[in-house]
Amino acid sequence: MSTQIRPAPVRKSIFVGAPQDRAFEVFTDGIGRWWPQTHKTGPVDLDRPVIEPKEGGRWYELYVDGSEREIGKVAAWEPPGRLLLIWQLTPEFAFDPDLVTEVEVLFTPESGGTRVDLEHRDLERMGEKAEAMRETVSGPGGWPALLQLFADEAKIQRKGEM
Amino acid sequence: MANANRVFAALTDPTRRAVFERLRHGPRPVGEIARGLPVSRPAVSQHLKVLKEAGLVDDRSEGTRRIYQIDPKGLGAMRAWLDQFWDSALTAFAAEVERASKEEKK
Fold it and tell me: Do A109 and A83 meet the contact criterion of CB atoms below 8 Å apart?
């Protein structure tokens, strides 16, 4: 019996008041205009992430000094309805060509706009890459700290109930 | 990792939290986890299932018993981080779509 844990995929949905093709275009070509600047793998300031508009294309970070760092790949390029990205960053935010997790993004026309559904799956594959995370979790900043944070939050909620 | 609220969401149920805390001192079979808790064993199994999906616990079979333990790989923390990351990323994406649409109308 395998002890491999399978966390549920991360699923997100958001509605945008724009046509499907516009939503797809902003997500891909316009990624540099919305991607959180704080989320990057290198020490230099991020210029923008780039999603190459083709199947098999690269998904990488472009830095202000012109250097590049891989995030993953484009596994399916099906404008304006579907995009399948491969996320190859470990929990330590380092690129690992052997790590393959999928990020599927679906763009569905709805009245007045587009619904965007994102699913980040195969997260259990990160478990094998989580050596540093394991130390974090079992160390003093790990579970005990998490539980303390939780206890604080629970206290706040209890107060709210009063 | 500061914002691990999604992990806590799995722990907001007091019984589920009690179940989780019983695993803090090492792996336990379901029967032992359920002992002394004011809920049925199937209910405990259900809580364990939720904790497992959140990446907080892990299980294995030992003969006919199922042993649960806190996930040593910290996937729960990882998943919580990604959950929060995509939340903020998609919110920023939606804001950019709205901004671009307004600009076009001008």
Answer: no
